[in-house]
Known about the structure:
The complex is a heterodimer of chains A (118) and B (145).
Chain A: E1 4-10, E2 13-22, H1 27-39, E3 44-55, H2 57-72, E4 76-80, H3 84-92, E5 101-102, H4 105-113
Helix pairs in contact in A: 1-2
Chain B: E1 3-8, H1 13-29, H2 36-56, E2 63-69, E3 72-78, H3 94-97, H4 104-119, E4 122-127, E5 134-141
Helix pairs in contact in B: 1-2, 2-4
Amino acid sequence: MELSLATRTVDEHTVLEVGGEVDVYTAPRLRERLVELVDSGVRSVVVDLGGVEFLDSTGLGVLVGAMKRLRVANGRFSLVCSKEALLKIFRITALDQVFPIYPTIEAATRDSDGSATS
Amino acid sequence: MATVRLSFSPAPVHVRTARLVGVAVARRAGVAEELLDEVRLAIGEACTRAVALHNQYGLPDLVTVEMSDSDSYSVRVIDHAPIEASVGLAKLPPDELADESLTDEALTTGVGFALLAGFVDDLQVRPVEDGPGTEVRMVWPVQRR
């Protein structure tokens, strides 16, 4: 399945919904979109991996790059993921210790400002 | 022994094809259904690595993937980059993963190797027998039907 990208706003957060396969071929499009968001002034990005069917090291590298970019800009970057297959990838690479990973968008957006957004 | 051999020009778009073929052959060989996601990821990582090396060294040579199902399902991914390119394959510790000084390429390489090592119990990375290049060999058990 091709990569799909869609953004929406939840309070002060920009949620990027990612779907399909994120691999060496499609990851540059994801990188481009994340760079656009940060360059446009977005300071809280929540990447929702709920629709992702495949994620490889190139995609993981793009996510780390976006997190670093936002950190430099004093921004916040988090992931939403509840699929065990993907969570295992984060554990094996130790990236679960690098990214804030939440089971839902609500949890990701609530945790940043201490108030529920539902 | 049935063998399927696939060669492709070192372009990212072909890695997906290699994954699809690799999983199709694995399923036919009798690899357990619950291992197929790992097979798909591992073949993808090995091919991604080979494509990146060929591009890094400006090599137009084809990357080869060879799958065989004798007593087990084995996949060999063969590149033709200088052998020293394979040195430095290492799993990165968490505190280095987000380090500013780490390049995207180094990060992806380290993460890719971590995935290969984490998902493939029987993994070998060794020089090819003739000429420059590296072979990544991965083996999975099969269930005979």
